[in-house]
Amino acid sequence: MSHTWKHDRAAEQIDKRIKDIETVEIVDYVREKDLESIPTAKAYRVDGVHLYADILNLEDMLHCTDFEGETCHKRTLRFLNQHFRAVDRILARTDAKRVDFHNQRLHALISKPYNTQSGAEATRVNQAVAIAQLIIDVLKETGDSDENIPAAKVRVGIDSGRALAVNNGRNGYREPLFLGEPANRAAKIANGSTSGIFLTNLARMAIGLEELEEPAKTALTKAEIEACQKAAALEVTAQSIVDEWEEDMEKNPIGTFQFTSHTPPFRTMDIPALTPANSRRQEALSIYADIDGFTNYVNRHIDDRPEDVVKALHVIRAELERVLTNDFDGRRIRFIGDCVHGLLCEGTAQTTDVEETIRTGALCAGGLRSSFDLALKKLGENGVDTEGLGLAIGFEFGSTAVSRLGLKGDRVRCAVSRSVLASESEQTRCTGVQTAIGQVAYDKGPAAIRDLFGKTRKANSLDFDAAVDGLAAKEQKAESKSGGGLLRSAAPAAASGFSFPTQAAGPSKKPASFA
């Protein structure tokens, strides 16, 4: 299939997804339930405390060498793997639920005791603070000087409130996703450069602390943390976790990360089969598409028509993934809340066609926005309120490593690189109608890319037709709009015509804007 977006094809698929969720069931979460296998058309209202732990020195790891080569990526993946296994052990021993572990960010939920019990919220916040301090203390000890792996510097954000738990995944890769303010506020207050434990004012008031004008600037004091630890009375210590972790690492060593490159298209990459010894690495384009305004949207509907939230999320994300994988041969790495992260690549296993990859990235971004707009229209026609929703898109190019962390049977997928961090950063500087391109992709792409995005490296309302027209205006190619298909340049034809055997990944070119 040529890399093009077509209205009729998108409309047909969106209609199918809407039909999947004609009837949605909303249930209060008041007893133990399996949140890892929530049906698509069901959601739970969950009162709980959300904890986000952000490893602050991931970017330092990605810059541990001047050149972003294999050594840098091997150290970074080992760094994340060691700390992930330690944190996962903490959550298992403290009855907290791991919601997501996305590169440097952990999202966990403390849902017990349920709100049917007196003082439940205060108990949960105390537990969350005690768990947070346990994470900080343990990760101080889980570095490895022999492997040049430092201890992790951690900042934790905590909030309390009610959210909707829905299915977060497709095709056998399922985990819970929590929609609403508490998860969002915890993530925001965890986003900073100073280590420590930070509580929102709602979480602070739940345990009797005073409100602050800027809670993100004031970490809990040692005395406040000790009070929470005493109230929580966790039955595990940092030393016991470290001892167990060391024993586990000895019995189940991580092994050496070994890379091969994948023959494009990336949609054929078998991520569930990846292990440290069977990881992928090559130059590729990283793209983030985030549903803008979704937290406020959830807040408006969590009591009034929560079914609309489930329907909108399911339809929009399913269509975004379809565009990325089916229309543009990319690979979805994971859903991160209301955001989708993916990779795509043009060329061969030996050589990435840089300009064509960046050109396809721009077209894919346009296709994502065209499908998003069409999904909103069709949801509205089916009685689903979508007011206030937008799509913020960011993408960047560079050498990227893809693997899975953890132990067999419980591994999490991971894509790390400077360009992955940069593409997420590009997305965050966009409004719901904007698309941003990273500096490396801007510099390495064809001249038409620079004309399309301008000096700000941002474009407004860049749908598929606008992307096609913008590229065609400079390149003078025989391209057509969405109804008739887009003719691609011949450079990457070998990737789809025949395949090369998987081979060891060689060094990639140094991105122009990185030291």
Fraction of residues in β-strands? 15-25%
Helical content (DSSP H or I, runs of 4+): 25-40%
Tally of helical runs? 16
Principal-axis shape equals globular
Description of the structure:
This protein has 515 residues and is of the alpha+beta class. It folds into 2 domains: 31-251, 2-Layer Sandwich (Alpha-Beta Plaits); 257-488, Nucleotide cyclase, GGDEF domain (Alpha-Beta Plaits), CATH 3.30.70. It has helices at 7-20, 58-62, 70-93, 120-139, 181-190, 201-206, 222-232, 238-251, 294-301, 306-327, 354-381, 418-428, 439-444, 447-453, 464-475, 493-497, and strands spanning 25-28, 42-55, 97-102, 105-110, 154-167, 176-179, 196-199, 259-261, 279-292, 331-336, 339-344, 390-407, 410-416, 434-437, 458-460, 503-504. A hairpin with a 2-residue loop joins β10 and β11 (339-344). The longest helix has 28 residues, at 354-381. The model is unreliable at 484-515 (pLDDT under 50).
Summarize this entry quickly.
The protein has 515 residues and is an alpha+beta fold. The chain has helices at residues 7-20, 58-62, 70-93, 120-139, 181-190, 201-206, 222-232, 238-251, 294-301, 306-327, 354-381, 418-428, 439-444, 447-453, 464-475, 493-497; strands spanning 25-28, 42-55, 97-102, 105-110, 154-167, 176-179, 196-199, 259-261, 279-292, 331-336, 339-344, 390-407, 410-416, 434-437, 458-460, 503-504. The protein folds into two domains: 31-251, Nucleotide cyclase, GGDEF domain (Alpha-Beta Plaits); 257-488, Nucleotide cyclase, GGDEF domain (Alpha-Beta Plaits).
